[in-house]
Amino acid sequence: MGVQRLVDAYIIGLGEGADNSSQRRDLVASIADGDASLLELVQALSAYLTSDEGGQRSRGMRTLAEVLCDLPGSAVPAQATAKLAEFFGARLADATCVPYTLASVLALQRLASLPDRCVVDLLRALFKEVHVQSFQQSTRADAYRLLDLAIEAHPAAVRALGSDFVLGFAQILDGEKDPRALAAAFQTIPRLVALVDIKSHAEDLFDVVFCYFPITFKHREGDPPTVSPESLKTALRAVITCSAHFGPMAVRPLVEKTAAAGVSAKVDAYETLTAAAGAYDPAVFGPELEALVEQIREDVVLSSDDAVVNAALNTLEAVYGAVSPAAPTDTSDASTPLDYVLKDAVFRLTAESIENPDQVGRILRAAA
């Protein structure tokens, strides 16, 4: 059976919801065996791909995507990859075709013959033409996989885009609510930060990420371990602390969230500050240090929850470990970070009626 007849039968089956697996195998086999070419397949699909009817264009792109995904890499000629990339880049402007176009691009990205310049053009088209958040979860997941694969397989292309990639990633993530998609995005961001200087768009990226803090949702049966509440919390913490550029924006809201009424949110804020102490410039803690110490003191003295007390003391130890080496050595005219701890401790331990000496001692030990 010729390529055109196979294509027509396949698309008729798509329209009728029939089982097309045999025709799909025949199409893949004919190209893999050399009886037909990808060019012939595209030519056979031309009437569908250029149709005025969105459904026909979508079915045409679906056919091309499904065949391309099943083809072994050796069956795709190197000279065809650039032409296919150009074609798919143009198709990203057609919202009807976007889901299957993204699937096609993912199949194309696995090929070693895909030039970096084509990846740059595809990413530019994605950022410019596709409003990712308007599509269903499976399409959004493909967009995140495409970005992650670009970082992994085409780092030179990502570096060439630089801050444009950072801004584009932030725009795609903005408004995402599905925990599976968030898990994928959170895993990608630290690798992006390690590859590209995010300084120009650090605030854009931080804003779309920090709005999820503290992250809370109910685990659904069947969800993979990567989208459990604890794993998402850990992944988000790694994102917030993956760049020193986030420090000036993160410390104040994190300190404010240590005053949260809920134990989980409070502990999460403390644990994130503990991680941040080793990631941010110590200077960013200075303006918030007094407020942080006051909140820690309150939680250590008054809280009945061991998780809160331990998290607070760990934060005090980590933050003071970061800021103390950076504190001024000449203290004749300036106070030091330790004053926030020592003055209150001296007052409490020298009062006529000494209260909470054990808690004061734990605070002193953590600061020391």
Summed up:
With 368 residues, the chain is mainly α.
Biggest sheet record: none
Give the overall shape, derived from the CA principal axes: elongated
Q: Give, in order, the helices and strands.
A: HHHHHHHHHHHHHHHHHHH
Low-pLDDT runs: none
**Rg (CA only):** 28 Å
Describe this structure in words.
The chain is an all-alpha fold and 368 residues long. It is 68% helix and 0% strand. It is built from 19 helices and no strands. Helix 4 (54-70) packs parallel to helix 6 (98-109) and helix 15 packs parallel to helix 17. The longest helix has 18 residues, at 306-323. The protein is elongated and about 100 Å long.
Would you spell out the secondary-structure blueprint of this structure?
Blueprint: H1 3-16, H2 21-32, H3 38-49, H4 54-70, H5 78-91, H6 98-109, H7 116-129, H8 137-153, H9 155-161, H10 163-173, H11 179-195, H12 202-210, H13 229-240, H14 247-257, H15 263-277, H16 286-302, H17 306-323, H18 339-349, H19 357-367
Helix pairs in contact: 1-2, 1-3, 2-4, 3-4, 4-6, 5-6, 5-7, 6-8, 7-9, 7-10, 8-9, 8-11, 10-12, 11-13, 13-15, 14-15, 14-16, 15-17, 16-17, 17-19, 18-19
Q: Which key terms come to mind for this protein?
A:
mainly alpha, 19 helices, 68% helix, 368 residues, 0% strand
